[in-house]
Amino acid sequence: MLCSSKNQSMERYIVAGFFLLFSIFVFAEAGSIGVNYGRIANDLPSATKVVQLVKSQGIERIKVFDADPAVLRALSGSGIKVTVDLPNELLFAAANRVSFANSWVQKNIAAYYPGTQIEAIAVGNEVFVDPHNTTKFLVPAMKNIHQALVKYNFHSAIKVSSPIALSALQSSYPSSAGSFRTELIQPVFKPMFDFLRETGSFLMVNAYPFFAYESNSDVIPLDYALFRENPGVVDAGNGLRYFSLFDAQIDAVFAAMSALKYDDLRMVVTETGWPSKGDENELGASVENAAAYNGNLVRRILTGGGTPLRPKADLTVYLFALFNENKKNGPTSERNYGLFYPSEQKVYDIPFTLEGLKNYHGHQSPVTGGQPVATPGNRGGVAKSTTGNTWCVANGEVGKEKLQAALDFACGEGKADCRPIQPGSSCYDPNTLEAHASFAFNSYYQKMSRAGGSCYFGGAAHVVTQPPRYGRALTSMELASFPLDIEEGREKCRRVKCCYPERD
Fold this sequence. Notes:
globular
């Protein structure tokens, strides 16, 4: 998000959605949550108080939009990892004068590092939508800043990149057809990606499902955008099923990178968020929806698992933003992305750590008042009349290691009824990891009364609306009478050969 405003029109992004995540703390691999600390306001607490607030919430990463000395001094010794920004207005100087780049690094990096744990420099921000036409200066500026880091021997620890908006994509639907704008590929993306590869850096991406939903609420159900339970959408290009607009947007960027043969580059989501208030025409902007999006996103990231296209790509994601900023231009939403009020009180209550997630069961009532906007029709979603008839199945795409870890959790701490899948028991065959995992996941899901988030297992499972089947097709009578509770329906399950759910 450009610091001034995000009024620019957003492209039509992929329609997809996602189930609420379920926290599985046995997973060692997981992503990381950070927060953007914007300061376009006249009522914010001091930088020292802000650092104390961030530490009290267990947030370990912070991103700022400049290199303000007061902020960098306050962060010194805090243990918080920091991403600083060289603003767009300095790109021309950094690109054309090596001496300027050296001076900037000396003044804004060397003067504070390593006491202040600066880990990255964002050179510019959403440069391609900057009205001042600074695109041609981007890569030269990145290279000069990197060379300045080399002089101080900081280049191994501090990476250089630049956040791009999703408007840099020429195509994003379906995700498998993701591609960058043609006019940017040769002059910008290829040299930038070569630079990122050579320096061991990563691509920074700003992704806002809110804008896609706001512009296309007639075709994007709110559940897709907020990580709530939904049937998912299959990408016709690669056969992958998507359950979140966020994942679909990120995979569109991965696909665009892959099309240019840069599959090896990592990605960091440097901005994403949802406004708690908006103008009358900003459909979806509400406290309740902001809490749902950010709370479910935190759970999604911290419990591990990548995207459908990159299942092993655990992401670092920075929420936008720490505070509501009263001096920002643009629509009302621009001033209401904050997780906190300037008084340091939460706008809504969500956790930021794995420990906090242990007692977090999805979005409850917001801390403050606020009327959520009416949700759109259920086009493409799960009709209310059918949401009770759902089953939980294994996602074999995550790989055997994560599938086994999820199965161990379900049969252990999750207390699913796994007796029927033990050797010699009625549902042992077929003796495959995916079949056993599906049985265990579904047992847990039904035991939890199909609660939102109880069928995720760190990305190893998802909900289907088709009845479970295995061995032979069930008759319509059997489908209608099949008990949703595995414990109660064990005898019927035996008669239909256990009916492991198959992935649709």
